[in-house]
Each structure stands twice: as C-alpha cells, then as structure tokens.
Amino acid sequence: MASATRVPGGAVEIRPVATRADVKPFWRAALKAQGHEPNYAPPLLKETYDVLTPRVTPFARENEGQAWVAFRGGEPVGRIYAVKHNAHLAKYHDATGHFGFLEAVDDDPVWDALFAVAADFLRSHGLSRVTGPFSASVNHECGLLVEGYETPSTTHTNFAPPYYARQLARLGFRPIKDIVGYEGSIAESQLPSRVAAVRARWSGSDDLKLRRAQGPNAARELNEVYNDAWSVNWGSAPVSYEEAKFLAELAQQIVPPDWTTLADWRGEPIGVLCMAPDLNEAVHDLGGKLMPFGWAKLIWRLKVSGVSRVRVPIIGVRRAWRGTRVGAMAAAVLLADAIEKARKAGCRRLEVSWMLEDNRSILNLVRSMPAEKTKVWRIFEKEI
C-alpha cells in the first residue's frame, strides 16, 4: 500500500486512495473546491464509490491508475487521478499517461503537490508525457471547462472555475485540443420535420431503421459501433466489452430504455445515439447524497416531474459510412428521433457534447437544430 506524501513544510499532505474508506475524502475535496459555485452540481457520493473504489471497475482492473487526496489541517482540499491507460498506449505508443478527476482550491502548494505525485506515478510506469483531464479516459469525462461558466453543467460534464486553467498554465501545461457543447430549444427545433420530409423523398428510406438498444446483445452491439465510429477521431481509444457492460449498467439507472438507439442499414447496425436526462439538474440541491431522502427526490424528478434539459453524449456512424448519404441520413434520423423523444418527455433544452472542434459533419448537423455553442472544454499536455 502506498504511503502518504508530505510536502516540505508540512502544509499539504497527499494521501493515496487505497481503500473504499478513502473515497469519501476524495468526494469531499470536490465539494471543498467548488461547493460554492452556483453552476456546479456536487457529484453523487454513491457514484463516486462506484467508479473510484480501488480495483472495482473494469477500467480500474484493466489499467494502472491511482487517485490521491490533498489535505491541509486534516481537511481535504484537492484531488487528482493518474492512469497508465493501456488501450491508449497500445494504439499510439507515445509514452503518455493521463490525469483526471481534478478538483482543488485555488492554492499553489496544493496544485504543486497533486501534480508532483501524479507525475512521479506516471514516470514510475515508464511514461514521459501527461495529457488531460480525462476522468478516467477519453471515453469518460473529457476536458477542462474554459468557456461557458455562466450556464450550469449537464450530466457527466465537468464545471471548473477559471482559476483551474490558470493553475494548469502556471504548471507548464499547453492546450492541445478543444471539444465543444451546443445547446438548442427542443420546442423550436424543426429538424424532425425537415428530416422526415427529406427521408420521404429518399429511395433508401425503407432500408434505414431505428431500434431500441436492448436485449442480451445490446451492450456488445453498442460497443462495436462506438469503437468503430470513434476509432479515427483524435485521441480515441477502444472500450473493452467488460467496461461497456459496466457503463451500460450505470446508465440504466437514469436513462429511459428507449433513449439509447441503434440505426440499422439493411439489418446492419451502423449508427448509435445515446441521450440522458440532465442528472445534474435533478441532484443539484442534494449535496451529493442520496440518503435518507435524496433517492426519493431523484426518482421523482427523473420519472415524474421530469427535468428541463437532456444531453446527447454519443452520436456517430461507423467509419465505412462516413461521408456517404446513408451515413448522413442515419445521423440525422437519430438526432431527429432524440429531439422527438425529449419533446415527448416535456424537456425544453437539448445539449450535444462533447464534439471535436473540427468535426464539421456532426457540428453542421447539430447547428441545424438550430443550436448554438455554449461550452468549450480544453485538453492539455505536458512533458514530465
């Protein structure tokens, strides 16, 4: 078991997350850093346990990662996670590790100590460069918020005050990629009717069908389409089937069963879209805790009263269909279908994120909702 790391002077102490009991201080560090921010939604303690208890998740078992908490005066004031992501290294061979789950008060020694221990860990695993934030990989929460501080974060996207980016710059990190979020009014969107009109005139309409992703093969189908569709994107790394099953099980707790959709072309799944209600909106006043009454409030808000916003974190088509009429129609029909489902659920706003800043085809489709850019998240790098 790793021992605690003390910074010279004893002002800051860094402790590893080595047991389930260490997860709660890790969670509390986020509340200490951002609990006062009006557009920040405290993470659920249960979900933090689900994903950060050491060696529990498929991702943790498949990779070499470590989380730490920074303490001052016995109180958690910061946290970080570093990982040697084996799927990334197998694809890119670039000696690069990742950092993520980053939260800290605006205090230079805290940030220095967190990144010092993370860099030491990555160097000890033969790595010479670090990129992030990825919590815990490019397939999870990505990037640091650098534009859009004035609007609340949506489910499984991070909120970060401006000083986070300033601290990374002070530590020598350089920006390498921006990913964006667009948001539009569901009631005002004419995309479903426009897509329906185009599809009615299209000779291939009968060969393109949508279906709910369900049944014993759903996770495998989703994973295969996702890995293929994202394989040529910047920074992409494949998701294992075991991790895909784990993520699907987590999503089932909050996502209506017909909000994860596959597009089939002549019986072959070629496209996928996943949409989720804005969990952050539903839990913003729960302080991250579901007990004793938080569960009831959460279920009521998700299942009965509903939420005003939804998020589409995944929309894409397989590589072979990119740049084709079939692929374009599949993406358009998937998004139009999502808008209709969100409208039926009484939701008012739809966010699509994260999209690469240079992914013109999907950006053009989303803009046609219409939707406007509301957030930018940035990924950084540094030699270690």
UniProtKB/TrEMBL annotation:
The keyword Transferase applies. It comes from Hansschlegelia beijingensis. GO terms for molecular function: transferase activity. Signal peptide: none annotated. It comes from the Bacteria. This is GNAT superfamily N-acetyltransferase. Keywords: Transferase. InterPro entries: Acyl_CoA_acyltransferase, BcerS-like.
